[in-house]
Automatic annotation (TrEMBL):
Protein name: TVG0727696 protein
Pfam (any one): N6_Mtase
Organism (species): Thermoplasma volcanium (strain ATCC 51530 / DSM 4299 / JCM 9571 / NBRC 15438 / GSS1)
Domain DNA methylase adenine-specific: 102-295
Database matches in InterPro entries: DNA_methylase_A-5, SAM-dependent_MTases_sf
MF terms in GO: DNA binding; N-methyltransferase activity
Length: 439
């Protein structure tokens, strides 16, 4: 890689920089603040080129712009180059350089919150740096950033969380944050920040992107509109717009009982159900076949050899015990949506889909390939059918309620009817273990 390219990349990783495009601001943020531009002081503490605030000037009549800027806009960034670019950007709105330099300054605002002597309350709009503490701790050039995570901020997991806490501690009333969606959906990476922050802020609006919006990061982000509350929240209800191939509305209820995590319906459902007595295991391995030779012929699908658009089939001779085990377990789990309506993740009959008695795997297992499911004790044919139907029905019900949030996005494709998702094997097991099997 070219030297300067590499150093740009290094800097990007170090400071968590990726620029917010003016378009995102104009499309998703500006419409919601445009009627209030005269009521607040507009601040971005991690301003980059200033694209999240400066376009507000478009709404101000040209003869009033300089005054508006001087009194109501303040931008900061730790990088001199960024501040220089933001100043140039302000100049392009006809703000004289002298005035721009006063309100656009270099500062480490994670370390020190700027004191602004302003008349109107602060409205903070920002796309803060994102950097996971695990990354920081592993990279020498980032070690200095560990200092942010001390005292009351100890235990937080990402730079953006430090930014949120600083706003809380400085009693900022209104904020718009562009942050990783894991703020809403994450477990260990965001439980603590939600527990500390969300008792004091409600979410008035959110736009959740299930697609890449920034050039330099694959992280999915959400735009969150926060407003400080006077009394502590124990639940937060909000409507969000989710954007992937299509646009959907979804309501979330966050509760302190779940560390204010969004999308807990799957876990809640599992917890609310009684467990059955089935023992579930996955995979028929080549090793098990080799260890159980005999006279019974079985035709098996080799889940790792894919030729001319299909998996290859192989015959083996196995002993009675393994033969019975294979034949009495005719179901497989499809963990990944195929992309068409009848190929959704779920339980299916191996015979129907592949025309074999079973599915084996040699060597490393792949969780996204078809996987034979083994159930103990063996179920009757009627019970198997009931298990399959109930499992798929419940899975699809939960997917509909949660917009499949408990699954992982497998591949973004804008033209598929739906976003293809992956169902974790442990989730499949959890669900199998609560299906009520009748005798
Ligand atoms: C994700 S970018 C924000 C881009 C910006 N919102 C825009 O629209 O152009 C994060 C910015 O925060 C800055 N930054 C990182 N650490 C900082 C710190 N401790 N104090 C102030 N700014 C910081 C980076 O230099 C970078 O420009």
């Amino acid at each position: 890689m070219h030297h300067t390219e590499k150093s740009i990349l290094m800097k990007r990783r170090t400071l968590g920089e990726h620029l917010t495009s003016v378009n995102i601001f104009k499309e998703y943020i500006l419409p919601k603040i445009k009627d209030k531009i005269n009521c607040y002081t507009w601040v971005d503490l991690f301003a980059g080129e200033g694209n999240l605030i400066l376009p507000i000037l478009d709404l101000v009549p040209e003869e009033k712009r300089i005054e508006f800027f001087r009194d109501n806009i303040f931008l900061f960034d730790i990088q001199k180059e960024m501040v220089e670019r933001a100043i140039k950007n302000a100049e392009s709105y006809r703000i004289p350089r002298m005035i721009a330099e006063k309100n656009i300054q270099v500062k480490d605002t994670l370390k020190e919150y700027p004191l602004l002597n302003v008349k109107k309350p602060i409205y903070h709009i920002t796309n803060p740096p994102y950097l996971y503490i695990g990354y920081i701790a592993k990279h020498k050039e980032n070690f200095g950033q560990l200092d942010y995570f001390t005292a009351s901020l100890k235990g937080l997991q990402d730079l953006y969380q430090i930014a949120l806490m600083n706003d809380l501690q400085n009693e900022i009333n209104q904020m718009v944050y562009i942050i990783p969606s894991n703020f809403l959906f994450g477990h260990s990476v965001s439980n603590l920040i939600r527990r500390k922050f969300l008792p004091w802020y409600k979410i008035n609006d959110a736009i959740i992107f299930e697609k890449k919006i920034f050039e330099n990061t694959g992280v999915n982000v959400a735009i969150c509109f926060f407003e400080r509350t006077t009394a502590k929240n124990s639940t937060i209800k909000f409507k969000a717009t989710k954007i992937n191939g299509e646009i959907k509305e979804r309501e979330y209820i966050l509760s302190h009982k779940n560390d204010y995590r969004a999308g807990t319906e799957f876990d809640d459902y599992i917890k609310s159900q009684e467990k059955n007595t089935l023992k579930i295991s996955y995979y028929l391995t080549k090793k098990e076949i080799d260890n159980n030779p005999g006279n019974n012929k079985v035709l098996l699908l080799n889940s790792k050899e894919y030729k001319n658009g299909e998996y290859i089939k192989e015959s083996f001779f196995v002993n009675d015990k393994l033969y019975e085990k294979i034949i009495r377990n005719p179901l497989f789990i499809r963990t990944v949506d195929t992309g068409n309506e009848n190929g959704r993740a779920g339980l299916y009959y191996i015979k129907d889909v592949f025309g074999t008695d079973g599915i084996f795997v040699e060597g490393n297992t792949y969780r996204t390939n078809p996987i034979q499911v083994f159930i103990e004790p063996y179920l009757s044919l009627k019970q198997l059918k009931q298990l399959q139907l109930s499992f798929n029905q419940k899975l699809n019900e939960l997917r509909a309620i949660t917009d499949s949030e408990f699954m992982t996005t497998y591949k973004y494709s804008n033209n598929a009817k739906y976003t293809r998702k992956y169902l974790g094997l442990s989730q499949a097991k959890q669900l199998l273990e609560v299906i009520d099997i009748k005798n």
